[in-house]
Amino acid sequence: MEGESELDMEQLLQKAGVLIEALPYIQRFHGKIIVVKYGGSAMIDDKLKKEVIQDVTLLKLVGFKPIIVHGGGKEISSWVDRLGMKSEFVNGLRVTDAPTMEIAEMVLNKVNKSLVQLVEELGVRAIGISGKDGGLISVKKKLSEGQDIGFVGEVEKVNPSIIFDLLENDFLPIICPVGMDENFETYNVNADDAACAIAKAVKAEKLAFLTDIEGVYRDPNDSSSLISELTLREANELLEGGTVGGGMLPKLNNCIDAILNGVSRVHILDGRIPHCLLLEIFTNKGIGTAIIGDQDMKFYNHEEK
Amino acid sequence: MEGESELDMEQLLQKAGVLIEALPYIQRFHGKIIVVKYGGSAMIDDKLKKEVIQDVTLLKLVGFKPIIVHGGGKEISSWVDRLGMKSEFVNGLRVTDAPTMEIAEMVLNKVNKSLVQLVEELGVRAIGISGKDGGLISVKKKLSEGQDIGFVGEVEKVNPSIIFDLLENDFLPIICPVGMDENFETYNVNADDAACAIAKAVKAEKLAFLTDIEGVYRDPNDSSSLISELTLREANELLEGGTVGGGMLPKLNNCIDAILNGVSRVHILDGRIPHCLLLEIFTNKGIGTAIIGDQDMKFYNHEEK
Amino acid sequence: MEGESELDMEQLLQKAGVLIEALPYIQRFHGKIIVVKYGGSAMIDDKLKKEVIQDVTLLKLVGFKPIIVHGGGKEISSWVDRLGMKSEFVNGLRVTDAPTMEIAEMVLNKVNKSLVQLVEELGVRAIGISGKDGGLISVKKKLSEGQDIGFVGEVEKVNPSIIFDLLENDFLPIICPVGMDENFETYNVNADDAACAIAKAVKAEKLAFLTDIEGVYRDPNDSSSLISELTLREANELLEGGTVGGGMLPKLNNCIDAILNGVSRVHILDGRIPHCLLLEIFTNKGIGTAIIGDQDMKFYNHEEK
Amino acid sequence: MEGESELDMEQLLQKAGVLIEALPYIQRFHGKIIVVKYGGSAMIDDKLKKEVIQDVTLLKLVGFKPIIVHGGGKEISSWVDRLGMKSEFVNGLRVTDAPTMEIAEMVLNKVNKSLVQLVEELGVRAIGISGKDGGLISVKKKLSEGQDIGFVGEVEKVNPSIIFDLLENDFLPIICPVGMDENFETYNVNADDAACAIAKAVKAEKLAFLTDIEGVYRDPNDSSSLISELTLREANELLEGGTVGGGMLPKLNNCIDAILNGVSRVHILDGRIPHCLLLEIFTNKGIGTAIIGDQDMKFYNHEEK
Amino acid sequence: MEGESELDMEQLLQKAGVLIEALPYIQRFHGKIIVVKYGGSAMIDDKLKKEVIQDVTLLKLVGFKPIIVHGGGKEISSWVDRLGMKSEFVNGLRVTDAPTMEIAEMVLNKVNKSLVQLVEELGVRAIGISGKDGGLISVKKKLSEGQDIGFVGEVEKVNPSIIFDLLENDFLPIICPVGMDENFETYNVNADDAACAIAKAVKAEKLAFLTDIEGVYRDPNDSSSLISELTLREANELLEGGTVGGGMLPKLNNCIDAILNGVSRVHILDGRIPHCLLLEIFTNKGIGTAIIGDQDMKFYNHEEK
Amino acid sequence: MEGESELDMEQLLQKAGVLIEALPYIQRFHGKIIVVKYGGSAMIDDKLKKEVIQDVTLLKLVGFKPIIVHGGGKEISSWVDRLGMKSEFVNGLRVTDAPTMEIAEMVLNKVNKSLVQLVEELGVRAIGISGKDGGLISVKKKLSEGQDIGFVGEVEKVNPSIIFDLLENDFLPIICPVGMDENFETYNVNADDAACAIAKAVKAEKLAFLTDIEGVYRDPNDSSSLISELTLREANELLEGGTVGGGMLPKLNNCIDAILNGVSRVHILDGRIPHCLLLEIFTNKGIGTAIIGDQDMKFYNHEEK
């Protein structure tokens, strides 16, 4: 029927429009490294999981160089419980003794290889490594207010040569946040910290945190105060204002640290929105909050107006 | 308002869907050469022109290797007229004497550089060459039913090294169909023939003709008999059936020739449809008629069902 | 004291002698790939473990290209028990249901990263991967006498490009025997089979199995009938003779398979002997049993007589 | 006959002498870029034209990296006339409106491809490009004493990457002086200015202008006052002296500009002398006037005395 | 004076003509390997020596890849005498005992480095090696009618990898004809044989022998019967005719051997003519006798008529 | 027998121990350049000679980049005598007139090629060059207290590109100390000076002098005062102390010069001890005296305690 076909054509043209709309973004990020901290709900919900992997794979295929850094928090807890191990806490942080560290590493590697599997399924070469491979992440013991809480590490140095080698060979690297200290002992590292340290070391263009919040609020109690864009200066002011609370504080510190070290734009994305990563990168509809460096503002001012 | 934002989100998700839908096609054609014969209305209408260039540029940016081969037919005629030169015809073909050849070459180069301009404007490196550069196209004189019709050439050999060099250096090559004979005289070449010869010489994955028709009809008098897909065998049968007429005959011969020489899929597209190239490649809604080689059928059978 | 110093000098000269004795072997295997199947006691005893890693690292440093393929058998069992999971057996083979496979993969990855750690500690770049990374190992379900025993895979194809990429970048690859089927499901693979399949795919010069036996016996009941060298023909005769029993049968089949596919020499080493790998390669005192291909005989005949 | 043969041998030895005499020059310019501004009579007279192309081709074959930048002045005028277009002049400069620019570009491209043809005929890979290809020449509108004279451009930036790519692939680049402004509009550029800007951007060793004069005169009215060599200081003094007139003034300014930007030696050659380019480079008989930078003086002092 | 200047210009144009005449030859041999057997008078007379070196250096500079293989015959004899050593002869061949071999090698290396010196003086990178370096020439003992005449070797194998490495690094290799047998004993090799064996191993385009004769005569007693060109067939007929005598016989055999193994053209040049090498290559006036392979005839037929 | 086999095993384990002990040293010097000045008794005694060559070859095979610089002193004298030439001395130095230089060069090249022979025999690619090849060593005439003593040169400049090219192509370069002055005249150079100058030019990690003494003594008259390690400061103090005498003085100056120019460690080894080179590098038992730069101390302090 005529009518149907006309409808079809209209839809097709809309499709073409979406693809054409992506042109400047594909161009802007061609060959650029984008570090994605993958965690939260997007890692638990199977549909969201598949969508994140589709997004990252698409980024790879159109010529960007994405890197996934993932956590494994909730699953670690569930295995610790399942094994009937006692959990001790200090200042709200789990004490990571040797047996706990062993479980944590096993779980993180399991998650790691399951992500490899999903990417390979989409036909892209993936490789799953930890911060131990190629001496990627060197750590020192992290104390919690002066107290030893076991094998919890603070990133001391990132040796990115393994990442560059893998990117050069066209792999999509998937990294779990485990490192070694100078005695080659294994430590757990906070995944946000690891992602930030890696983004800095590889001079990433973009660092995106998939979280379970909508973004940064000017007033945490007012859901209408969501901030869509923060300059470095504004981010600092917000921190000093003291209204940023809880889990957002270290994340915002990581954002600022990344920007100061050459990352052009850091995103706090709501990982509960399907394809949030794709939408953030390929449309000019901002999702979540972006913290932006100075040289990056030019491109967006130019493109987004 | 809630409602508005929900609408927004739905639109965004549709956008993401379109991009994700492109994934298998991006993967399939990554690093592959796609020759686009650019001509007809799509070359005259400024909006269509811009859209073709956007399409080709997008192909380049997502990792394909497009090559444009263009004609210039109508504009050549108009300049010949403007210069008050006489036109002589033999069997319906214009006799191309030396002064006409001079005009033709000038006009083709003008068109060539105007396409370079449009691609460069989109931020992609373009280079406009003719079949004389780097000895790309060698021709011999073409007779029309035994009669000398001047500097009209038949492609004898394509030396593709210049194209490989330019692709290697990340250029989008734009080629006008002019060649030289063994005495280094300049000849005009039919753009369809040139595109086909180049596609064969560079072992293109795809060859697409932008035309001013909807595609191939089983019965030229019945507009509902448009064929969306032809195997090599069917295309041959159609030819032998004798119903293929006029301008379609040499085009279909070119298609078959290309397939027999290693091109996986040849498209006769309706260049009057905006973004027909993009739609053909990135959606499973066929535009126009595709002639397909055997190994290509597998992919499409697998993907499109 | 004179005397002491003379003694010293004598010891020093002996040391020099050992190094010089290594010369022809270093030369022979320069740049050659050596696949080491690492398992058994050498994987449990900490001293032996350290020594194996020292050996492999030395091989790397003097210019060979060693690859470790490891198992994890006993540790998998212990974790299955620890988690209170039921074990079911069919024809003596453990049925690997999904939860068991999950545990197996976690344990194998744990072992994998602990080996990375040991190699990195010696200052050599290691990378731990599984057969899922880069699509290295493709499997199909293996039946045990027609019965489904779960996620136990038979190697269908090895795609060695990831290994070549890693060797090219000077990594020592450490591989755990896990693969995926065509639906991207995870399967456990016998480590001997994986080592053999990888050795064939990368055209290894040598394949060495670290085992818990002295080698192959002509008569399994007569410990003085240890065979130090078998030609391909002799190995086949031995198999046909029917005296080879138990665990040795598949191992010997793997050896023959590897030789037939271009590996020059396969070793069944006694992994309980410290530095058995080094001794086998760098001295002309054979350790265990060697199965040798025809072209390899020339070198050894020349060197060892 | 004896006598004849002796005569032959003497001629042969003279030939050998000429070739040997070329040795230090071949050595001096090996791998060096030489920009040739090609224009004037040498472009109109067919014999001279062929000789210039032979010269440039020889430079290419003995290991130099020549680049041709050509004009097309007289032919543009003749086509403008032929098309019956009105010519308007401001301060002696032709006003280049859009239709004129269109003609100019067509003619320049025609000349460009005819040069490609001649070089290809001699068996050397040539490629003809304009300043639009690869974004080679960026311009801004040039005003004539404050007045808009249309699409006449002043070089703002040369992006030489396309030239380096082509040289790397062993092409002889032939360039016509057309550029684009920031809105991707096409402009005509003075060929001398384009050659000078390109020579500076590619750090050419030599820049040679083929002209229709003998060289620079100390006194324009005294044909015996031809200067064969000018240092930078002397060239400046000459300019300040005010005796340099007409067309020589901008040319001399270009020479000085090139020298100041790293070109070692600029030549104003008499293009009416056959093989003037070859003679200038391969003999120590100066043709025309050379403006020389400081580091270049050493070589010539050493070689030419 | 007008007249003088006109004379000058005429001479200059003749110079240009000589250079232009060289064009097709430079093109033909670009990147091609040319082996020059250097010996005879051209090695003793200081002026001729300098001219040969100039010729070879020029070949290098215009893009060919010349290789010099030299002898040292007369100087070896003079040093043997000077050291008061007895000379013994068998069938007219000097018996080369160990002390004689020692002298021979010393003298050959002396000559070798003196040639390096001359080439370096002309500003070209030279390297002097013997057939011992990089295992270039492997020999076996050569018997003279069944009798042992000492360390006189017959070339068994040429391993050209050292030559390719040196050419790749842009060296002009200068080689003296000394080789080693399978026990790594040093042997003297006839320089003609060495040159021929090397030309075959490196697939040289041309092999030129500098000799002390005018060329090959049809009738050795008739100086007017000098042959300027021989096809392979004619050369064989000449050999079979039995009129070729003395020193020419092995030389002609070497020529035929080289042609049969892929060298396009072999020259027997009169090394007493200054610049004979240059004249042979760059002019169409043949010097001496050329033995030509079939595919080479085409070029020369085309060029020389 | 049991007992015998146990003894065997013990010996084998000792062997393995020696190899493992070499690990950190192999790692430390991987890819590093080590210049060995080869002279004295180790060059005359056939057994020592063979052992030095074995040592250097082993260094090459395990991944270091050794370079041999050799002298030829005693053999030159013996040939000068044999040829009945008069020797004249000035301040204890032989006057090197042209005929003596000719002999010296011949003898040095003879030694050079005999070393090539020994290395090739061990299956490693060697190439023997002099300082004339590739313009390696440029010299000026050296005066002895103001007096001209002939062709004795002082190193002015080392152009190491030939060495880098040869190392890149995996050759073991063997260099004899002959150079050319600006007029391309040949000069003899002291081998110690040549080795030191080369070590500096190639930024060697280590420079080792094989000598006929035990090392440096604090008190030359007290054989128990042998110094095993000297810092730069201590070496300077020793020099200033005035107790260093005779041949050691210039050697120590060379050592200090090398250290100051970036060589990490210089060794004065007792070449009369078999395999002294190997022992020095692969064990922590110091042989002779080491002069060490500051950054090198760290490694040895760490490794050797």
TrEMBL record, chains A, B, C, D, E, F:
Cellular component GO terms, alphabetical: cytoplasm
PANTHER family: N-ACETYLGLUTAMATE SYNTHASE, N-ACETYLGLUTAMATE SYNTHASE, MITOCHONDRIAL
GO molecular-function term, one example from the UniProt record: acetylglutamate kinase activity
EC number in record: 2.7.2.8
Alphabetical list of InterPro entries matching this protein: AceGlu_kinase-like_sf (IPR036393), AcgluKinase_fam (IPR004662), ArgB (IPR037528), Asp/Glu/Uridylate_kinase (IPR001048), Glu/AcGlu_kinase (IPR001057), NAGK-C (IPR041727)
Enzyme class (EC, first level): transferase
Upper taxonomic lineage: Bacteria, Bacillati, Bacillota, Clostridia, Lachnospirales
Full protein name: Acetylglutamate kinase
SUPFAM superfamilies per record: Carbamate kinase-like (SSF53633)
Its job: Catalyzes the ATP-dependent phosphorylation of N-acetyl-L-glutamate.
Domain named Aspartate/glutamate/uridylate kinase: residues: 32-270
Listed HAMAP family: ArgB
Domain of life, per lineage: Bacteria
Catalytic activity: N-acetyl-L-glutamate + ATP = N-acetyl-L-glutamyl 5-phosphate + ADP
Location(s), subcellular: Cytoplasm
